[in-house]
From TrEMBL:
Protein name per the record: MFS transporter
Cellular compartments per GO CC: plasma membrane
Keyword field: Cell membrane, Membrane, Symport, Transmembrane, Transmembrane helix, Transport
Coiled coil stretches, renumbered: none
PANTHER family attached to this UniProt entry: ALPHA-KETOGLUTARATE PERMEASE (PTHR43528:SF1)
PROSITE patterns reported for this sequence: MFS
Record localization: Cell membrane
Major facilitator superfamily (MFS) profile domain boundaries: 18-416
Tagged with keyword Cell inner membrane: no
GO MF, any single term: symporter activity
UniProt cross-references to Pfam families, sorted A to Z: MFS_1
Amino acid sequence: MIERKHMSEVPMIQRIAAYIAILVGYFFYCYNFVIIDYVRPYLVEEYDSISLADTAQFYTWQSVGALIGALSCAWVASNFGKKSTLVVITALNGGATIINMMFTDYATWALMRFIIGISLGGYFTVAVSMMIGLFTPSVRGKLTAFASSMFSVALMAMGAYAAFITSIDAPWQSLMWVGGIPPLVAAALMIFLLPNDKKVIAYGEEEAAEQENAGAEKKKGSWGEMLSAPYRKLTLSCLLLAGLNFYGYQFFSGFVTTYLRQVREFDGATIGIIFSISAFGSLFGAWVWGAIADKYGRKVNALGFIIAGVMASVFFVAPSDVMIGSLNMLAILGLIYNFGLSASAVWGGYFSELFPPHLRNFGAALFHGGRIIGMWAPMVLVYIQERSDLETAMWGSPIIWIIAGLLWFSLPETLKGGIFYKEKSLKQANA
C-alpha cells in the first residue's frame, strides 16, 4: 500500500498554483462551450457544406457530448485517478478544437463538437471534485464560485478579442485557435502542478483514508451506488434541481433578446445595453454568493433563485420607458435577476459535498446530468409559445425559479456551522 500524505502537507504555493492551472482550464472549458454560437454566421458564410440549421445541430451534438462526458468521466476519475483524467480531457479539449479547424464539412465538425462536448462535461466534473480537495471547506464556496465566474469572463474576453481581430482584419478562425492551443499548454502544466490524488489525501477524504488504512477495501463508487437506496432521493433531487436550472434559464435568458425585440420593440442598441448590463450581474454575483455560502451555508444561496423569480416577474410587468439614471429600468432588473441566478455557482462543490468522498466525482457530475431534463426546455417553450404567445410562455421562468429555490431548501446543508446545518440530516442523506 502506498503511504499517502495529507493535502495540508503539500506546500500552499503548489496548491495555489494547482488551483490556477485548473482555473485556466476552466476558462477554456467555458470559452469552447460558447465559441460555436459566436462563429456560427462565419461558418454559414464561408463553408458551402454547412447551413444555419447545421450549426444549431453542432450545439446539440456538443450538449449530448457534455452529458456523456460528465457521467462517464466521474467513473473514469474514480477508477484511474482525478489528476490523470483531468490532464487527458484538458488536452482533448484543445486537440479536438485544433482538428476542428482542419476541416470544412458538416460530419467532421459535428464529430469534433461531440468530442469537445465530452471533454467539456468531463472537465467540469473532475475539476470541481479536485478543486474542493485542495483547500479547507471554509473557502470551497468562494473557490468554486470564482471558477464559475469564468463563464462571464470568457464571454467578455471573447468579445474583446473578436473586436481586436476585426480591427486588424485577422481571420475569424483566430477565435478558434485561441480555444485550441492554450488548453494543451494548461494540460502540460497540470502534469507538474496538480497533486497526485493516488498519493495525497484531499481535504474531506480523511475518514475514507483511515478506513482504507485499517484494511477496508477502497471504495471507487458507481452510478449504481448513486441510485441505490441510501442516495437515490438525493441524486434524483440534485438532477431535478439542475434540470429546473436549465429550464428556468432557457425560459427567460434563452429568449430575452427575442422578447425585447418582438414584444417590447426595442432597437438593437437598447437591447445590447440591457443585455450587457444584465450579464454583469452574473460576474460579481458569483463572487458574492460564494462568500455567502462559505459564511452562512450552501442552502442560503437558494434565496438567489427566489430573487431571480421575483425579478423575472417584475421584468415582464415593468414599463418600457422608465429610466434609472441613464439606464433603462429593465437593465437594472435584468442585472438583479442574473445576480440571483449566479447563486448556483457553488453547485459543483455543494453537490460533491452532499455525498461521501468516493462519490464526489459523481456528485459533481449531477450538474451536467441535469441536461437529461433540461435539454428539452427550448422545445417546450416553443410548444407553449405556438399555442399562446412568447410572453405567456416566458412566464414559466419565475414559476420554475421559485420551485427550484424551494427544492434547494429541501436538501441537506453541508457546511458545519451554516444557518441550516443539521448534522443528523446530513448523516441520514449519506447513510
